[in-house]
Design brief:
Beta-lactamase, 29% helix, alpha+beta, Diverse_Enzym_Activities, 17 strands, hydrolase, three-stranded mixed sheet, EC 3.-.-.-
């Protein structure tokens, strides 16, 4: 398995040791009062791990510690990996950002847009613009998630078995056929909505490459980067390393074990989810973030070209707008004002408008399961935090973490 260790004294790379300890004190309080089971954190600067810490349990009920080899459900932090996979194929000329998705999944040739009406009798109209590959990458496709429960189209997903998972037995190809038959929330390219776009993108990768998504990930991203423990499920020999899953009690805020939501990670899924399928370790995902910080290369393994990655980090929202203007609220603490969206990542455009201490151009993503990462190219810094608590917005956790990491930069 890949390992992670502290590689440099924080002061040598412009981080204050005393200020870094504030992060651990803040996060540890969440464990001590029962709001979190445990956590792990890595902060790097100039490509070197300067602060590595953990506290609490990966399995509170069995008193198993949060350890270096603990496996976590990455959930939506799968999306950036799928985006990188698609851009590998873009670089090779196998797919194009302007390509209609129907070139790879014919069912998307006839998608329609919701106009009005109830779930059982929606009034729809043909799209005037096809869903293109770039719309999947930027979440401007008009696809959605059932768990939003904020629109009749969300309810259509839920009624058909698409809420937090896909219907049992259906593979990714079959799921895409269903999603293509559901109405879109809006005309592709006109707004932003969090949904199954990355799942459909994963299917595009499969069709275009001729490989299953797990095989493509393994050969083109995971193996080159040494991400030895990252996969779409946990095999039996690693099951004891998987963190237990917890949800926040609405009344008390305390972390409550939820094996029903967590058990899916122990079995190979029928549908390989490019949105939320991966299980990984802090050490493995750290390697992915260092590839991003290195503009596509890590330890001599180039995954993407630097110009490709820089293009991914532009704001691809319509008219250069921010998420607050053209997006629906997401299930997280993430700021939306002053924040754009690229091809797979949220990108801070205006820190003052966003109300966060950050650099313009800082980018990353998170998940409803509590995991988060970001990369700050200006400060040459990455941060990676893993826990297993849903929803991630139950406590002021991710926002405070950004504050605490950035206040430790003193050079």
């Amino acid at each position: 398995m890949s390992r992670i260790k502290t590689e440099v004294d924080p002061a040598e790379v412009g981080l204050s040791p005393d200020r870094l300890r504030r992060i651990d004190a803040y996060l540890s309080a969440y464990v001590d009062d029962g709001r979190l089971p445990g956590w792990q954190l890595a902060v790097t600067r100039d490509g070197k791990v300067a602060h590595l810490s953990s506290y609490g349990s990966r399995d509170r009920e069995n008193d198993l510690p949060a350890a270096g080899d603990t496996l976590y459900r990455a959930w939506s932090m799968t999306k950036p990996v799928t985006s990188v996979a698609a851009m590998i194929l873009v670089e090779e000329g196998v797919i194009g950002l302007q390509d209609p998705v129907s070139r790879y999944i014919p069912a998307f040739a006839d998608v329609r847009v919701y106009q009005r009406g109830p779930v059982d009798r929606p009034v729809t109209a043909p799209v005037t613009e096809p869903i293109r590959v770039r719309h999947l990458l930027s979440h401007t496709s008009g696809l959605t998630y059932g768990f939003h429960r904020a629109h009749p189209v969300d309810e259509i997903y839920t009624k058909n078995g698409y809420e937090w998972a896909t219907p049992p037995g259906l593979d990714l190809a079959a799921c895409c056929e269903h999603w293509a038959s559901f109405p879109l929330l809006f005309e592709p390219g006109t707004a932003w909505n969090y949904g199954v776009s990355s799942d459909v993108l994963g299917r595009v990768v499969e069709v275009a490459s001729g490989q299953s998504l797990d095989a493509f990930f393994a050969s083109r991203i995971l193996e080159p980067l040494g991400m030895e423990d990252t996969a779409f499920f946990v095999p039996p020999e690693k099951a004891d390393r998987l963190a237990a899953f917890y949800t926040a009690d609405p009344a008390t805020g305390r972390a409550t074990r939820n094996d029903g939501l967590g058990a899916g990670a122990l079995h190979r899924p029928a549908a390989l989810s490019g949105s939320a399928g991966l299980v990984t370790t802090l050490a493995d995902y750290h390697r992915f973030t260092q590839m991003l910080l290195g503009e596509g290369v890590h330890e001599g393994q180039r995954i993407l070209g630097p110009r490709t990655l820089r293009h991914m980090l532009r704001n691809h929202l319509p008219g250069g707008a921010d998420l607050n203007s053209v997006g629906r609220p997401v299930f997280s603490e993430m700021p939306t004002a002053g924040v754009g969206f690229g091809l797979g990542f949220a990108v801070v455009e205006d820190p003052a408008q966003a109300g966060v201490v950050a650099s313009p151009g800082e980018y990353g993503w998170h998940s409803a399961a509590g995991t988060i990462f970001w990369v700050d190219p200006k400060e040459r810094l990455t941060a990676l935090f893993f826990t297993q608590l849903m929803p991630s917005s139950a406590h002021p956790l991710h926002g405070r973490l950004r504050q605490l990491v950035n206040q430790a930069v003193v050079d």
